[in-house]
Design a protein that fits this description.
A five-stranded parallel sheet has the order 2-1-3-4-5, sandwiched between helices. By secondary structure, the protein is of the alpha/beta class. It starts with a strand and ends with a helix. It is built from 13 helices and five strands. It is 57% helix and 11% strand. Strand 1, helix 1 and strand 2 form a beta-alpha-beta unit.
């Protein structure tokens, strides 16, 4: 179980997140809440959490100041920042602090659950080799990244399991698909389709190493849908089937 704390000055949000999320189902334990960054920092020192969900702007000490001090003291914490639409200058600071993600208020519970699940999965499969086909975080940490590209990468991280394409996202962002495709290519040197496929394959490798799912289930869970499509994409990327990939890597681990 990962240890979680919530730092939020608005009682309704703080208490709401505390009681509405199914923490055990997320493989997490809520170990405390705080009403400002000063209380939050004391709670981090006392409970040594794995995840901190925190507002950015709070009285006495902001979430950003709290995160900066916690990092300076050596705490290895995954910070999820909560922010309003008018706080993008603070979001830029959050990105420099290597935030796992930031979520806009009002908080979408499903979106928050997805972010927490990503953190849990990453920590639970830490024994797997680090397969980084496309590092979204590398680009998201760039404070100068085009806002539409940023939103697209975050959308891929959240919705890669679903049937999505650049046209769907462009429509949600109220921009043309050609404009969005061009900006994605300029920023990442990759097309939307290439990014989506690589991100899905990264997640597929994690699931393969967990050993809890059949290949056709992994195809569904990572958005490929069809088992044949999954195997085709996997072989194109790794030059072997999923089964062969796991077998070869486990042999390499045994040699080491």
């Amino acid at each position: 179980m990962l240890r979680v704390i919530i730092v939020e000055d608005e009682n309704i949000i703080r208490e709401g997140l505390s009681v509405t999320l199914d923490w055990p189902a997320l493989q997490c334990t809520l170990v405390g809440t705080a009403a400002n960054g000063k209380e939050g920092l004391a709670l981090i020192r006392a409970t040594k959490p794995d995840i901190v969900i925190t507002d950015i702007r709070m009285p006495e000490m902001s979430g950003l100041q709290m995160a900066e001090m916690a990092q300076a003291e050596g705490f290895q914490v995954a910070f999820i920042f909560l922010t309003g639409y008018d706080d993008f200058k603070y979001v830029r600071q959050a990105l420099r602090l290597r935030a796992v993600d930031y979520l806009l208020k009002p908080i979408d519970e499903e979106e928050l659950v997805n972010v927490i699940s990503e953190i849990v999965t990453a920590k639970n499969v830490s024994v797997a080799p680090a397969v980084q086909l496309f590092d979204c975080r590398h680009y998201l940490e760039d404070a100068n990244l085009n806002i539409y590209v940023r939103q697209t990468l975050n959308y891929i991280k959240r919705e890669y399991k679903e049937k999505i394409n650049v046209e769907i996202i462009a429509d949600k962002l109220n921009v043309s698909s050609s404009y969005l495709s061009r900006k994605i290519k300029e920023a990442t040197q990759s097309t939307f389709g290439e990014i989506l496929t690589k991100y899905r394959l990264q997640e597929a490798v994690k699931l393969l190493y967990m050993g809890k799912y059949r290949n056709y289930e992994i195809a569904y869970l990572t958005g490929f849908g069809d088992y044949k499509n999954f195997c085709t994409a996997f072989k194109k990327q790794f030059s072997m089937s999923p089964k062969e990939y796991i077998k070869q890597n486990k042999k390499n681990e045994e040699r080491e």
